[in-house]
Amino acid sequence: MSQAELRPRLFLILVIVGLVIVSYSSLACTVVIFGQSSTPNPGNLTSKVHASSFVNSSTMIPNASSLTGSALSITNSMRNSNATIPLPGKMPYISDNNRYIFSQNKSEISTPSNNSHTGEFGEGVKIAVVMPTFTAAAYNNAFYVFYTKYENVSHGINITKDLNLLSSRVTNEPSDSASGFSMLYLLGNLKWTRPSSDITFLTDQDVDAGALFRENGSNAFDVIILGHQEYVTEKEYDSIKQFVGDGGTMIILDGNVFYAQVKYDRNTHNVTLVKGHSWAFNGKSAWRSVSERWQNETAQWVGSNYISGIAKFSNNPFQYLPHEEQYLTNPNDVILLDYNATSPAAFISNMSGGVIVATYELNYLKGKVIALGLYSDDIMTNGSFDRYLDSLLLQYAVRTRD
After folding, report:
1. pTM above 0.70?
2. Which residues, at least 6 apart from 352, have a Cβ–Cβ distance to it below 8 Å?
3. CA–CA dist 333, 359 (Å, integer)
4. Each residue of 282-332: pLDDT tens digit?
């Protein structure tokens, strides 16, 4: 994402901040790490934390129980606050757009075409929400200052100044440029669709350290959910790919994922650019390089690649404005919702038939990838999108073990 593309999401931030203030004032600041209660340590960036506890007291990430005291309280606090909410077990709750109908006890979801999913939604399914902490660090007055300063540099020229800008300290604080607040909002969706789901917050550094797997090498989770994971280490990239290949389900909320490779120093907690975003850096100099680090490999197992500059979407049920998207690059992609994108001129001239931006699914080895295709942060509080995301979570995340 370029600096010029950053846009404020004030409404979303205000919603999340309000929830955070309420929950923070009512909860003790106790962190449960690896199943044991301990006093938060601001200097400890190991943050594998169950959703029923704070990730870090300094970040004020809300306790899940404060958001989900009951299905009714979730609906009241996080959806269509002006709507009349029926009591549990009574009339089904009908969304404002009449697109999806949810029974209040969460045992059924149906659409106007009468497709219905009933039963126990994924009892015992283990879900990990991965906070894009490496991407947040890159945007924190670091990488993008360098990119802007040297945007006119041509290929073949080595840059040896301002290299400190290509490293940045990683924290666990949520960032609006890296899905931080949207991931917190997502927690409400997850706990609404399945309050008993086993949900864990991870960070990029956790995944880099192998948190997706048990000691015996098997997957530790059934589902992982990614946001704006633009910057990842090679080990993190390989781990996520292995997780899916071994039977896991990956849900990608945003466009512009796996775009650049970084390395992470656990002693300094610094993340440093290695390759991608049109640059490469070896610690001594930086030079022009590839845009998308693993473009061909990502197309093979994720099923799409980054695109920007879309003119418009002819099928736009969520009133989404073009920002940063994923376009389909694998013939095995199964389209769930095609947004009928009008392609940038450069893509029209280079690709027959233009590009397809869509929500899709792709089977990879034993697992599955579900990608929204859009930059979902921008529409996370849109009622229509909220319902659509709920339906995907019900179908692909919390029903995994049905």
Report:
1. yes
2. none
3. 10
4. 999 999 999 999 999 999 999 999 999 999 999 999 999 999 999 999 999
Can you tell me whether residue 65 is helix, strand or coil?
helix
Q: How far apart are CA 374 and CA 379, in angstroms?
A: 9
82-94: string of b/e by CB count within 10 Å (b at 16+)? eeebeeeeeeebe
Structure tokens at 133: 């902490």
Write the DSSP string, 305-347.
EEE----EESS-TT-PPP-SEEEE--TT-EEEEE--EE--HHH
Q: What is the DSSP letter of 175?
A: -
pLDDT by residue (tens digit) across 24-55?
Answer: 333 333 222 222 323 233 334 545 655 444 33
Name which of 206, 257, 213, 208 is nearest 233 in CA terms.
208
C-alpha atoms less than 13 angstroms from C-alpha of 273 in its C-beta half-sphere: 32
* 158 phi and psi angles, rounded to 5 deg: -90, 135
- 105 burial class (0-12, 13-18, 19+ CB within 10 angstroms)? exposed
What distance in Å separates the CA atoms of residue 23 and residue 191, rounded to the nearest whole number?
Answer: 15
Residue 392 CB contacts under 8 Å (≥ 6 apart), including other chains: 251, 336, 359, 370, 372
The most confident of the ranges 107-116, 273-282, 309-318 is 273-282
Question: What are the extents of the domains in the chain?
Answer: 3-304+361-397
Distance between CA atoms of residues 127 and 224, nearest Å: 6
